[in-house]
Amino acid sequence: MLVLSRKKGEEIIINGNIYINILDIKKDHIKIGISAPINVSVHRREVYELIKDMNIASAELSTEDIHNLLGKKSKETR
User: Fold this and answer.
1) Any bridge partners for residue 32, and if so which?
2) What is the average pLDDT score of the chain?
3) Cβ–Cβ under 8 Å, residues 7 and 22
4) DSSP tag of 22
C-alpha cells in the first residue's frame, strides 16, 4: 500500500487520467473529489461489496427464479 500525505487543495493522479483532490479536512473527516473517465467505476467500498454480492446472487438464479421474479410462468408450469 502506498501512503501519501496531502494538504487541502492538493491532488493525487493515478494512471494519468484519475484525479483525486483533497477538498476539505476536519478532525477525522476528509472530503475528496474524484475525476475519472466514464469507463472507470468509482464506488465507496461498502457499495462495491453490495454490488459484487448482488451480482453473485443473480448469477446463481435459475431460469425459473428469473421468471418468478418477473411475474411470468416458466415453460415447466404452463
Assistant:
1) 22
2) 88
3) yes
4) E
With contact defined as beta carbons under 8 Å apart, do 22 and 32 qualify? yes
Which three three-digit cell numbers place residue 20? Answer: 483525486
Q: How far apart are the first and last CA of the chain?
A: 56
- Please enumerate in sequence order all residues whose Cβ is within 8 A of that of 44, keeping only pairs 6 or more positions apart, or say none: none
pLDDT digits (tens, 9 = 90+) for 29-61: 999 999 999 999 999 999 999 999 988 887 877
* Of 27, 23, 28, nearest in space to 9 by CA: 23
Q: What is the pTM of this model?
A: 0.66
DSSP class of residue 28? T
